[in-house]
Structures are given as structure tokens and as C-alpha cells.
Write a structure and sequence with these properties.
Blueprint: H1 5-20, E1 24-31, E2 37-44, H2 53-70, E3 77-82, H3 93-98, E4 103-108, E5 118-127, E6 130-135, E7 138-143, E8 147-152, H4 156-163
Helix pairs in contact: 1-2
Amino acid sequence: MKATPQENRITEIAAPVIKDLGYELVCVKIVGDSGNQTVRIMAENAETKRLGIDDCTKISKALSAVFDVEDPISNAYNLEISSPGIDRPLVKEQDFEDYLGFEAKLETNMPTESGQKRFRGKLKGMKDSIVLIDTDDGEVEIPFGSLSKAKLVLTDELIKATAQI
């Protein structure tokens, strides 16, 4: 997934801090305009794939202190820490393996050869940086680098599976 230079800079700063606290950074997103920006950071416990409110508070306090020193955003901003949720974004190649068999929505930067930009189907994994997804029209291969968005679809199957983690 494409990130802005500022999101990449915040990721570079935040990832080691979050890792030192025993969590894993999922993604960083900056929303809003320069007068009213929000830095959204999703993180999780690598084993449970969850993040509680106390965990969010711990991460927020640690990052606030580091951001005060590093000053990655020159304007005022709000910092939001959250879990990626059950219908989480898929941001790393490993995510497509971890959630093999679950339903997902994918969107590409440019239309594929078929002219399509949006896909929905069951994840079939990765092969040489190519995402494999089984759609109603058959299996589709999408280069990981061409994805602009990818997330799991909230289904009964996903809810049942995540309740067991």
C-alpha cells in the first residue's frame, strides 16, 4: 500500500517504540487538512491480534513523548491509537498468508487487464509478491505493489475464527 512521505516518517519513528512495548505496528494514516490533522496508528499484540484500551493508552503516552522530541508533524494534530479490528486492513504480504481462506476486498491503483479495479473474494495466499484471490469470476492474480487498499470482510466465519485466538 502506498504511504505518504510523512506517514513513512511517522512509521519509522513509531514502529520501534511500539515494538519495545511488546506490540506490532499495523499501519499509519494521516487524515484531514493541515489545520486539523489526525494521525491514526493501528497496532496489535502479535500473538492475539488484539489491542485493549489500556494498551492504546500505553502506546499513546510513549508515542506522544517521542513525537514531542522528533516533531514529525509541524502543525497541531490529534493522535489516535487503535486496534485494526476484526475487518482489519491487509497491509503486509504476510497478512495475505495469515488470513488465507477469509473473504477480502481489494482495490488496485490502476485497472487490471480485465479493466477491473475492485475485487472481492477468498484469499488464496501469495506467490512471488502476487496476491491470489478467488472471486466469483475465478482466481485473480494481483501484484502486491499495485494494491491501493485491502481489507478483510466482516463475516460470521471471520468473527468465529477471531473469537478463538
